[in-house]
Design brief:
By secondary structure, the chain is α/β, with parallel strands linked by helices. It has one domain: Rossmann fold, CATH 3.40.50.1220. It has a six-stranded parallel β-sheet, sandwiched between helices. Strands 5-4-8 form a three-stranded antiparallel β-sheet, covered by helices on one side. The longest helix is centred in the first third of the chain and has 17 residues. It is globular and about 55 Å long.
Length: 282
């Protein structure tokens, strides 16, 4: 199938959809200027001081550093928090939201991104699942209790040359220990998933209420890779029913199960190409 035919098929699927599930991986944020952590080279290009230490993304993104070297841990996550706070979502977020809001069955978002870009773009907070948590919330590193809190107002100062966070570090509001982002890290056994569980319940309730029969659900997946395939697996699981179509937009990992649609483009370009044709056809 040619790219043009795939885009035409995706257009028809979106026009015919009664509801829309948007699933997104890290590739969704790259077009907003966020770093691409795919592979050590991409990660080290974004964080040269960590490259000098010889640490990969999977090695630095672990809870142990908040105990062993909190200056390094909060240099990394503090920088990310500031970056995500300052980043403006690309137009693809807004384009998708406009078509999603018009669906009689509504929409939902399922993302592995912890950056909060969907909320910033205007998506309903109650229609978003952040399966790996959000950097915009904090929890205790111990943890002393089952509680998270908003990171709004947290400003971690960093010595960029040494790549070390300066004290005082964010603290637990209850016991005073060092706090950490409420995100699922590698080798993480203390992540508080309570907020994500509530989000997932709302998504499951929405899916279960969608009518059977001739009710069409489109799943549009953007930038979800295979290294951590949580989003891809979920997209395919939801799509594995009658009257459901998966549209996978990915410049590299674009293979799809039989009967679904592959768009080998970046997130922003793929969304733009499809929705321009939707608006022309509508």
């Amino acid at each position: 199938m040619t790219l043009e035919n795939a885009i035409e098929q995706a257009t028809k699927a979106l026009l015919n959809a009664d509801a829309l599930l948007i699933s997104a991986g890290a590739g969704m944020g790259v077009d907003s200027g966020l770093p691409d952590f795919r592979g050590d080279k991409g990660f080290w290009k974004a964080y040269p001081p960590i490259a000098k230490l010889g640490l990969s993304f999977t090695e630095i993104a672990t809870p142990k550093w908040f105990h062993q070297n909190p200056k390094l841990a909060w240099a990394f996550y503090g920088h990310l928090l500031t970056l995500f706070q300052q980043t403006i979502p690309h137009d693809g977020f807004l384009q998708l939201l406009e078509i999603a809001k018009d669906k009689k069955g509504g929409y939902f978002v399922f993302t592995s991104n912890v950056d909060g870009q969907f909320q910033k773009a205007g998506y309903d907070e109650d229609k978003i699942v952040e399966c790996h948590g959000s950097i915009h919330y904090l929890q205790c590193t111990k943890p002393c209790r089952d509680e998270i809190w908003d990171a709004n107002g947290v400003n971690v100062k960093i010595d960029e040359h040494a790549f070390e966070a300066l004290e005082p570090f964010p603290q637990c509001k209850n016991c005073g220990m060092i706090a950490r982002p409420n995100v699922l890290m590698f080798e993480d056994w203390v992540w508080n998933d309570g907020r994500t569980e509530k989000q997932e319940k709302r998504l499951n309730d929405w899916l279960n209420k969608l009518p059977d029969g001739d009710f069409n659900l489109a799943i549009i997946e953007i930038g979800a890779g295979t290294a951590v395939p949580t989003v891809r697996i979920y997209s395919e699981l939801v799509a594995n029913k009658e009257n459901r179509t998966l549209i996978r937009i990915n410049p590299r990992d674009y293979e799809v199960p039989n009967g679904h649609i592959s768009i080998p483009l970046s997130g922003a370009e793929g969304i733009d190409r499809i929705l321009k044709l939707v608006n022309f056809t509508d």
